[in-house]
Amino acid sequence: MPTHVNNTPEVILYTDGGCSGNPGPGGWAFVLRHPASGKELERFGAERQTTNNRMELLAAIHGLESLKRPTTVELVTDSEYVGRGIRDWLAKWKAQGWRRRDGGRLVPIKNEQLWRRLDAQLARHRVKFTHVRGHTGHPENERCDTLAVAAYQKYL
Q1: Residue 78 is assigned to a structural domain of this protein
Q2: 17 is catalytic
Q3: Is residue 99 in a domain?
Q4: What is the CA radius of gyration of the chain?
Q5: N or C terminus of the chain with fewer C-beta within 10 Å?
Q6: Active-site pick, 17, 18, 63, 85
Q7: In a domain, 55, yes or no
Q8: What is the tally of structural domains in the chain?
Q9: Among 74, 78, 119, 140, which one carries the catalytic annotation?
Q10: Is 119 a catalytic residue?
């Protein structure tokens, strides 16, 4: 289960993902910043046929997986899907065998393998989720968007 922390993060992880069409060619990107040293790491990737939600998840997963040791992280993203999943849905899905309620029955969650990977990283790190509005001039969010879009251009 994710741990929400109030103390100062060791690193800030900015993420974004997107697609040209949904589904369609998509990209993910992250900027990982260590405020104490000023060091940054940028990474990005793309898939030929994917969804926005998968790319948003992969951005967070790859960013957290890049950390070499358990770390206090502020995860900053414009993805309501990732944020609500971490904050509201993940514990229920796990308790229900990675299923969600649909009507009166339990059905498999979408992107289960990615949620399991993210869950493993949330167990490893202390993560605080922060939502930012996309495409509003937030510098790091805009940088991640630029990297993600550039990553999937090769598939257009």
Answers
A1: yes
A2: yes
A3: no
A4: 15
A5: C
A6: 17
A7: yes
A8: 1
A9: 78
A10: no
Per-position pLDDT tens, the chain of length 156: 444 444 678 999 999 999 999 999 999 999 999 999 999 999 999 999 999 999 999 999 999 999 999 999 999 999 999 999 999 999 999 999 999 999 999 999 999 999 999 999 999 999 999 999 988 899 999 999 999 999 999 999
Q: What is the CATH number for 20? A: 3.30.420.10
Any domain includes 39 = yes
Write down the catalytic residue from 42, 80, 112, 135.
135
Q: Which residues contact 84 (CB under 8 A, 6 or more apart)?
A: none
Can 56 be counted among the known catalytic residues?
yes
Catalytic residue among 47, 56, 74, 119: 56
Active site includes 80? no
Record the tokens describing residue 121, joined without a space: 């990283």
Burial class (CB in 10 A: 0-12, 13-18, 19+), 98: middle
Question: Which residues form the domain of 46?
Answer: 11-87+113-155
88 among known catalytic residues: no
Tokens matching residue 91? 């514990």
Active site residue 85: no
